Amino acid sequence: MNTGSDEKKSAEHPAESPALNPADSPKGPSEGGPDASAADGTEEPPEQPLGSRAPEFIKARRTLHLSWQVGVFIVGLAVVAAGVSMLVLPGPGWVVIFAGMAIWATEFVWAQLVLRWTKRKVSEAAKRALDPKVRRRNLILISTGLVITGVLCGIYLWKFGLALPWDVGN
Fold first, then answer.
1. For residue 96, is pLDDT > 60?
2. Long-range CB contacts for residues 157-165, cutoff 8 Å, separation at least 24
3. Cα–Cα distances in Å, from 26 out to 11, 19, 29, 49, 81?
4. CB–CB of 79/62 below 8 Å?
């Protein structure tokens, strides 16, 4: 029951007021609050809360929720297994593995944490790859490799012509 004691306390001691306490006040954009944007000027979407994303009527019944979790685990396991097999067979293995992790992340907190960590690492790698110094270094390495390959191909053509090395009979 609210007796209004908080309101009286706020009027008597304004520094202790919950709304005026600087430690509890919402942080602004420059202080890393909810309106803050990333360092590169783009706003990051808020992270979803951890936990099950099953419909409420499923979460309300323990047996049904456990069955739901088992089903999600089996479907995710099948997708991850298909992705692992695609690492050695033709197909987009890593994409399918991450899709299986996303399926697991709809229900399991550990998968949500792994997926968040992976997204963070991928975005950090993308930012590093777009760094002008790194791009310049990569362009120099690629150009050098292409020049060396061209010189080796030229030497081969000069020495042997268009004859392929396995055509020994000609």
1. yes
2. none
3. 21, 9, 10, 20, 46
4. no
